[in-house]
Structures are given as structure tokens and as C-alpha cells.
Amino acid sequence: MKREIEQEMSYLQVTAKEQLHEWVEQIKEFSSEGKTADYIPALKDMDSSQLGICLIGADGTVIQSGDYESVFTLQSISKVISFIAACLCCGIPYVLERVDVEPTGDAFNSIIRLEMHKPGKPFNPMINAGALTVSSLLSGETAKEKLSYLFDVIIMLTGKTPLINETVFESEWQTSHRNRALAYYLKETNYLQGEVEEVLEVYLKQCSIEVTTEDIALIGLILSLDGYHPVFHKQVIPKEVAKLTKALMLTCGMYNASGKFAAFVGMPAKSGVSGGIMSLVPPNTKKQSPFPDGCGIGIYSPAIDEYGNSVKGVTLLKKIAKEWDLSIF
Ligand code: DON
């Protein structure tokens, strides 16, 4: 997307760009922890040494470093977009009747609390049980119609028509036994609307949408600005939906590492097993911040930890948050 508001960088931003290159190089070289998501065969062979980042400021400044041009699939970052889309088509009260807003402390694909938490309502839209329910609420009857609605929302945010990585989709479609089990359980408890296989197709295809760090940084920026699109100059997400989404990212976006992430990074964020992280910094009053009017952040680095979060990505975010004092707390 052509960004008409691009402008000259401030002194702080020029310094920030240099620092960022240094940190990316250091982390790429010294951090070797984590491994690519092997439970999805098509993700297993991604180059785990990669690390890329894109920051877009509210003033239009773009700072990129490392492997920022790599294309990867949204995976769980799509849960943020489908939640926004469901709120747009059904309204917040309808969505929250079907999915709660509480963190679980369990793995993203955990099934255990569905039966323990009566009457089986998913805890939040950022875990698989909640995301499957949310995908079933999207406007349309068939998988095709629901995806077309989701695509329209993505176009409204990024200005780009999404592409599905069919290899990743097929690979997960064949191996998604746990998601199938979750969806059938949710069908039985009436939280999931429509047919299980249709909903599963929507969910796995939304996970397989290809993006770059710039695409997710832009979505992060729109959320940072409470739903206002700084390039299209209009409110594309209602403020109430944007605020709710950010609260969910902060409390549940990094799964059972969300508490640690809030404590040691302190920014709303959402990860995906392909190694992407979408994060944001709200406008703040800290004078030393290179982005005082807020920014969106997109990161990609495919080696993930046991929670499903990018190891190098989290390390880099921790460094940035500390050095530039970006924590919201
Ligand atoms: O449902 C799944 O297993 C994946 N397609 C998405 C999971 C995911 O990205 C969890 N992330 N950190």
C-alpha cells in the first residue's frame, strides 16, 4: 500500500533505526533456542534463523530491519482479525454471549476447560476453542461466504486482497485432529454455529493467509489508534471493538505466556505458530519514545517456544520495550 503520510524521520527515529539493526543482528546471531512448528508439516522446514521486523508510526514513519520482507502465514494472529470481523457483523454482545474474555493459563489448543467450565463456553477468542466459535459467527452460510466476508475486512485494513497458502492449509487440514475434536465438542454444546467441517475450513484457511511484517504492523497501528486508519483516513473499526481487542491481546494474546509477556514487555500482542507476532504501542507521553503518537509492530521469526510464541521475536520485543520504555504500564 502506498503510504502518502510518509515523512522525514525525527532524530530519535533515526537513532531507533540504527539501534534496531544492531539488536536484530545480535539476536539473529546469538539466539538459537526454539524450533519451527513441526505439528504442521508445511511449517517444519521454514528457515529458523530468520528474524525480521517492521514498525509503522502514526506519523507514517516506517522502520524495517532483518528479514522483514519474508512472507509467512497468519496462523493464530488471524484470531484477532476474525474476532474484529465477528464483532462487526454480529455486534459485541452477541459475540460475548458465545465466547468469554478470560485468560486460561492453558495451551492454545487445550480442551480441558471446555468441560470443566460449565456450560462449556470457550474462555476467550485467542485460544482455538474460542477462535473456532468466532469463525462460525462470521457473516455467511458457507465456508466460502464466511471467508469472503473475512477477506473484505482484511482488505479494509491492509488494502490488499489476501492469498491463502494452499500447502499450509492442506497440511493442517490433514492433521487437525485436535481442532476437529474441539469443534465437535463446541457443536454439541451449541456454541459453534453451522457445520463443523465448514467452520474448520474457515478457521484453517484464515490461519493460512499469507502476510508480511508490514501487513501486520499496519493492523497493529490501526488498533493502536483505536480503529482509525491513518492511510485511508477513516474509522474502520469501532473504538469499542478496538479497545476490547487490545485488552484480549494483552491478557490472552501470547497464550499461557501472556502474564510473563505483560510483565516483561508490556504491550498488547498476538502470536502465531508460524513465528509471527503482531504488536502495538498506544500513543503515550513518554518523551524518549521514537513513536510518541503510537505505532504498530510486525515481527517474523519462525523458531517457537513451548507456548507457540516466536523465541527471537519475543526477545526482540523485550529489548525494544526496555530500551525505548514502551511498556504501557
Ligand atoms: O490451530 C492451530 O493449530 C494453528 N493453525 C494455529 C495455532 C497457532 O498459531 C497458535 N500459536 N501460537
Layout of helices and strands:
Elements: H1 11-30, H2 41-44, E1 52-57, E2 62-66, E3 72-73, H3 78-90, H4 92-98, H5 112-116, H6 128-137, H7 143-158, H8 166-175, H9 177-188, H10 196-207, E4 210-211, H11 213-224, E5 228-229, E6 234-235, H12 239-252, H13 258-264, E7 269-271, E8 276-281, E9 295-300, H14 311-323
Antiparallel strand pairs: 1-2, 1-9, 3-4, 5-6, 7-8, 8-9
Helix pairs in contact: 1-14, 3-4, 3-6, 3-12, 6-9, 6-10, 7-10, 8-10, 9-10, 12-13
The structure holds 6-diazenyl-5-OXO-L-norleucine.
6-diazenyl-5-OXO-L-norleucine binds next to loops.
Structure description:
The chain is α+β, with helices and mostly antiparallel strands and 329 residues long. The chain has two domains: 1-70 and 211-328, Beta-lactamase, CATH 3.40.710.10; 74-207, Beta-lactamase (3-Layer(aba) Sandwich). The protein is built from 14 helices and nine strands. The protein has helices at residues 11-30, 41-44, 78-90, 92-98, 112-116, 128-137, 143-158, 166-175, 177-188, 196-207, 213-224, 239-252, 258-264, 311-323; strands at 52-57, 62-66, 72-73, 210-211, 228-229, 234-235, 269-271, 276-281, 295-300. The strands form three sheets. The protein has a five-stranded antiparallel sheet with strand order 2-1-9-8-7. A hairpin with a 4-residue loop joins strand 7 (269-271) and strand 8 (276-281). It is globular, with a radius of gyration of 18 Å. 6-diazenyl-5-OXO-L-norleucine binds at residues 75-76, 108-109, 128, 172, 179, 207, 271-273, 308. 6-diazenyl-5-OXO-L-norleucine binds next to loops.
